[in-house]
Amino acid sequence: MKIKSVGYLGIGAVDPLAWRHYGVDVLGMMPARANPGEGWAPPETAGNNVRVSGDGVAADGTVYLKMDERQWRIAVHPDSRDRGMLYLGLELDGPLALEAAVKELQALQIPVELGTEEDAFARAVTGIARVKDPAGNALELFYGPATDYLFHSPTPGQQFVAGALGLGHLNLFVTQQAACFEFYTRVLGFRLTDYIRIGPGARLQFLRCNARHHSVAIMEMAGLSGLQHLMLEVRNIDDVGRLLDRATRAGVKITSTLGRHRNDGVLSFYMRSPSGFDVEIGCEGLLLDDSWTTNEFCEGDVWGHQGLLEAIQQSAIGMMEHAARAGGKP
Ligand SMILES: [Fe+2]
């Protein structure tokens, strides 16, 4: 299977409007056309059941945010508690690739469910199938995303580095890391870019599916499963700095100072999102070609990123507390 990119992220949150404020006023994303699959019709001709308000909020209260030409990249669905990541969309090339992917999963006896046209419409894509990784994360294989070319950041001049590279990268806490590694590499076709040892027998593995240094990183942490951080990339250090200014002014908790990672070269800071997981905002991420050699690296940062280890521990503690409050599994 060949995944082209991480296309979209779905989040379950108690207060999606808090996410709209965070996404628009801090991150500089744009409220998306809120109706998945919505066409070009102007509001007055769109029909009674279609809202075209421009506020990014769908009739069911879901907030949709966009960062490039794709109709949306992040959907925040109303939920009874802050569940973090609900699903992750992984892009395939087209209908034949989706058909082949489903057959491949079935041959491996991995449960997969081909979605209906309605399911695809709900994600503003053309075709969709659902599968879970061995840690239980819901993945959606899709092709044919809706593009509307309408991105204008509310922050003048800000651009995200997304498009064919996908929405950024995600660092996932996973159970059964060895099985997850096999699934992401052997089944989904991700490649191991590099890894860092974080203790005896423990490692953080960085996986890529296109030229971006990594789109997914996985690590085992205290039996938890879920999103630890989402990284969004902007063009340059001025965009990073201006975004840091906005986050500070808005009272967002900054969880790591500015710094530059050793392996992917990203210059970034981290902050807490309204959902409890962290958001990393960075620039200058490495793009790799086939000359890259998989390697172990021995040092997390060239400089800075003070607070990062504590932030990762805090994410784990936060997830455990959430699970305890919900009286169930993380
Ligand atoms: Fe990161």
Describe the structure.
The chain has 330 residues and is of the alpha+beta class. The chain folds into two domains: 5-143, Roll (2,3-Dihydroxybiphenyl 1,2-Dioxygenase, domain 1); 163-326, 2,3-Dihydroxybiphenyl 1,2-Dioxygenase, domain 1, CATH 3.10.180.10. It is 22% helix and 31% strand. The protein contains six helices and 18 strands. The protein has helices at residues 16-26, 95-107, 117-122, 177-187, 237-249, 308-326, and strands spanning 5-13, 30-31, 63-66, 74-78, 84-91, 112-114, 127-132, 138-143, 169-173, 191-199, 202-208, 216-219, 226-233, 254-261, 267-272, 278-283, 295-296, 301-304. The strands form two sheets. The chain has a ten-stranded mixed sheet, with helices on both faces. A hairpin with a 5-residue loop joins strand 14 and strand 15 (267-272). The longest helix is centred in the C-terminal third of the chain and has 19 residues, at 308-326. The chain is globular. It starts with a strand and ends with a helix. The relative contact order is 0.15. Bound molecules: fe (ii) ion. Fe (ii) ion (FE2) binds at residues 169, 171, 229, 231, 280.
